[in-house]
Amino acid sequence: MPDQLIFGMEVVLNGLMAGVLYALVALGFVLIYKASGIFNYAQGVMALFAAMTLVGMMEGRVPFSHLINAIFGTEIHHFGWHLPGLLAILLTMVIMVVLAWIVNQLIFRHLVNQEPIILFMATIGLAYFLEGFGDMMWGSDIKKLDVGLPQGINDWIDATTFEIMGYGFFIDNLDIVATGVAALLVIALVAFAQYSKQGRAMRAVADDHQAALSVGISLNFIWVMVWSLAGFVALVAGIMWGTKSGVQFSLSLIALKALPVLMLGGFTSIPGAIVGGLIIGVGEKLFEFAIGPMVGGATENWFAYVLALIFLVFRPQGLFGEKIIERV
Amino acid sequence: MKQRLLTALTAAMLVASPALAELTVVDTSYRTGPYGANGIPFSDGYQDYFTLLNERDGGIGGEKINLVECETGYNTEKGVECYEATKSAGNGALIYQPLSTGITYQLIPKVSSDGIPMHTMGYGRTSAKNGEVFKWVFNYPANYWDGASHAITHILNENGGDIKGRKIALVYHNSAYGKEPIRTLEELAKKHGFELTLLPVEHPGQEQKSQWLQIRREKPDNVLMWGWGVMNQVAVQEAVNIRYPMDQFIGIWWSGSENDVKAAGEGANGYKALTFHNLGDEYPVYDDLRKFVVDGGKAAGAGDQVGSVLYNRGMYAAMLAAEAIKTAQEMHGVSAINAAQMRDGMENLEMTEAKMAALGLPNFGPEFKVSCQNHGGNGFGAVSQWDAAAGEFKLITDYFQSDQEIISALVAEDSAAFAAESGITPGC
Question: B170 has which bridge partners?
Fold first, then answer.
């Protein structure tokens, strides 16, 4: 087999894996948009906040320690205990639920029936608030996140592909785990939305707030639930991306990678986020591999958006989005 | 009403009046945003050293230092706003140290017309080394092009002086900063016969799979890196993932702090980074910093950065500024110097080992002398290596000089182009 073809296959596989990571971020956007029509600008920051909280829990850091020390002249930083990863993840989920409740009580409860742009602006404010709040709570240092996920080249794939093709493929173990987690997450979310009472209520709210209210569905409960689910997805994305690069401010910028995925897959489809992620992941990696060297490289960011724009021209609602027909 | 008016007038006078006989130093810091984790230790070191001088020595030459901090968030527009807002603070700002190549480029024309010196230590516009063109900008003791040459010289030394046919890849931040070493590396490639591959990474650098797959396919003998922020951490992790030999991976000094390697754990052991100052906290000055600043609750930040690579760099920048102030005071025979006199002090700064030892920093930085023609020092640097078990970078070479034959020609060419564009007549 020609070398370029083999290399191309490796690039496609890695593109698929990268796409799964993009999709993990996009899922959080989809959940909230689907249920409330809000484009949640704060989704990336929620991933950062969740990952920071997780590390803080695991390392037994004292929240707001810098503030406490500055005010009271103390020197406290750690509680002196370390929590196991699983327990810390559970506690972080609880905190994300509390955050969802607070966000709903203080912000979105008061903005029912407001224009989408107002809700969007509110999420921008929330994003900036959470950025500062997270830094104040856990510090802005770069934190190592280790919940026991494997990282580095998968030796079995390397050896097997080498035996077959004379070239060992690189696949990161973390990407394999992320793929499995994303698959489980999508199955669970789709099953929840289709078959559970709360899931059906969530879809009813998404279709028509007023009609859902008239049949006794609590809008507040649904919104808190959806923001909690988005917080959980943010935590999963934060764990995967935070394990790769350490937990730091830039984690919030992963939202930028999710936008073309949403444009392509549709803002309202959970499977669309996954398929969109895979197309963007493969597309940008293949373009960088085949065309990048001819144009000086660094094509991935803009190519993802170009690809999404091309899809938009032909299918504005995205691949799996709902076509909105408004009669005059 | 009258009383209110008087109170307001008094308050306005207090704000507007210049502080008497103070030396105003501005710290354009960034403690927030994507690069805050790096901005904090640098700023802490920069401020703590001046605080030490105030607390221990009563300032410099009897004049207290008035430190003014302005948060830029590493944002060029905010950096310019900070400059405009602070240039007249106190008796007028004496020096700027923006810690951002983007902000530096925007401030070069401003400081030149306002007559305020700017020190861009190891960053900024490299050809600012030519003092005949860039009268108000200084970039001693080393610049990006020195760094590119240091990396190649180190590889030469490791390979018996022959790197003909060797494959060297540059992974760089796709920005003005990241592109700085390319021209120098291309010239060095011609001279030494190595093959250079360029691998740009898009901001912020969170996703680098394509670049590292290419490195794995093409197996370059060495990888150089010009990164900042998250790009560094991801690159080091990807190098670990593909099992690239870490001792053949060399980062510029902005890719060589604890922040860049700790997240990758044990796998990052052996990673190399360039530096133009020494590392660690085993210097007498740190005893004073702890005694007069940190323990006294006067540290700029949480006091937990002392001795880290970027804290040391900030502290070193402050020390060089303080020495320039002393030089200016001696030259002009006044203690309350102005910005123009500060520029003279910087232009006549000479750092000797004896001087550094007396300051409590023996063997901390290379010796160098600044002149009207040469605002960039002698181009000495060293190589450090990450020891994951000890959790610290250690210097593994002595200071050595960059390839002046190539760099001087490039500086002359680039600064001449700037002079022509800007209508500057070079001269001292």
Answer: B198, B224
